[in-house]
Amino acid sequence: MPDLKETALAAEHEALGASFTDFGGWRMPLKYSSELEEHRAVRSAAGMFDLSHMGEVRVIGAEAATFLNTALVGNLAKIEPGKAKYSLICTADGGIIDDLITYRIGEQEYLVIPNAANREVVAAALTERAADFDVEIWDESEGISLIAVQGPASAAIVSSLVRAHEIDLVENLSYYAHTTVTIGGQEILLARTGYTGEDGFELYLPHDKAGALWRALLEGGSDFGLTPCGLACRDSLRLEAGMPLYGNELTTSRKPQEAGLPVVAFSKEEDFIGRAALEQAKAAGVGKTTGQRLVGLKASGKRAARKGHVIQNLEGAPIGEITSGVPSPTLGHAIAMGYVDVAYVEPGTELHVDVRGKPIPFEVTKPPFYRREQASGT
């Protein structure tokens, strides 16, 4: 794969026999053995992912909170140091540039995490939007690696590697919060977030220390069933959890109201970029009484709908399009997400998806398709 970027863990993936794919210009592990086995490992024990292709943009300064409240649609000033928030960065006309997790590191310091394909776009947009604010924007993406441990055994695995007095920090860390721990003498930013529908952690550290941490996690997690996992199972896991993927469910041609994301803080004082357009969309009932909205779809069989397949009403008229679809390994039937006309968004509505010329029945359902209290295989 010529001209593709590689993470600092490329040699580790090769040593484990990974097969690779081009993902947003990065040479990333698709799977190590079987994507089905990797998927089930995350649901039953734990899986480990290299997410070092994600971006890290630090925002520092006296006006950091006010700036982010102008640059993003959410209210970042309300989150306390040690916490995190999911938000969006939008265009002036309300289209979604990217969905982001933002950590508040201190009173005047935040760490913004863009998606891999958008990291340069987001860093540039933040830099441009910061021109009139007392802040500094540092794109640290080239120096930071990110490893995720996801699954029911993730807390036990991470706890087994930190210093004894830090075990409580791991076990008591709340969802969408972060702390600092030490593993093998290396200080790590530890966050309890995730993209799989399971309990899990994300570990941020310098590139040159990533290989040692990867190997320590593999060794320490061996007694807990930890399995290295690629992007293939990550996609099926996130879809079961009903989580949108940028480039599929989220694009600059879609507004947050269409995506069903209630993350726009209209109550905040700041005139954030995209505010006027999103207020107009809200007033017009976009995603509720007009236009289209993202829905979940489930089938009784295993034949999957795929991105781009046309969604039809029972009379055969086109009413939308699939954005993601897989046969669910956990649930045993096909699931999908897609945009449909608002007249068809009610859960229980029966629709068809044109799969290679054959109408396959699907039913509208509200994501997530899987919740972690569900037993694997049910």
TrEMBL record:
GO annotation terms (biological process): glycine decarboxylation via glycine cleavage system; methylation
Coiled coil segments of this chain: none
Domain (Aminomethyltransferase C-terminal) ranges: 293-370
GO cellular component, one term: cytosol
Swiss-Prot/TrEMBL keywords: Aminotransferase, Methyltransferase, Transferase
Subunit structure: The glycine cleavage system is composed of four proteins: P, T, L and H.
Protein name as catalogued: Aminomethyltransferase
Organism, scientific name: Nesterenkonia salmonea
